[in-house]
Amino acid sequence: MAPRPFVPYRRDLKSKSRAQRRDPTPAERKSWFEFLRDHTVKFTRQKPLGRYIADFYCAKEQLVIELDGDSHYTEDGARHDRLRTASLERNGIRILRFTNAEVMEQFEGVCGRIEEELGA
After folding, report:
1. Between residues 120 and 119, which one has the greater pLDDT?
2. Following DSSP, what letter does each residue of 43-90 receive, concatenated?
3. Is the distance from CB of 88 to CB of 95 less than 8 angstroms?
4. Of 20, 76, 78, 115, which has the fewest CB atoms closer than 10 Å, so is most exposed?
5. What is residue 44's three-state secondary structure?
6. Could you tell me which of 83, 43, 78, 81 has the C-alpha nearest to residue 64?
7. pLDDT grade for 6, boundaries at 50, 70 and 90
8. Domains of the chain
């Protein structure tokens, strides 16, 4: 197995990530409490990685799961997502993106796609 990349930790994101853990979106809450929290592969939520905070991160698999709400579908949101994706991929981290609607309406399919990626 290749060594995990080192992604610099920014202390200034710590309080923001804690606040996001305390107040998750409904899709984040569902994903965490109904699937990822007790998964056999360890995930953390609202993990600072470089300049960004990942919704969910599995260090062992170098996998980020992002759940996108309405703010991601603006021009600024799309640009921010492209920059985040490029930055994380440069560090060898894979990204899976789902919309909040997918999580809420097609939860089994989302979970199955995550399982596929973990098995890859």
Report:
1. 119
2. -EEEEEETTEEEEEEETTTTEEEEEE-GGGGSHHHHHHHHHHHHHHHH
3. yes
4. 76
5. strand
6. 43
7. low
8. 11-119 (3.40.960.10)
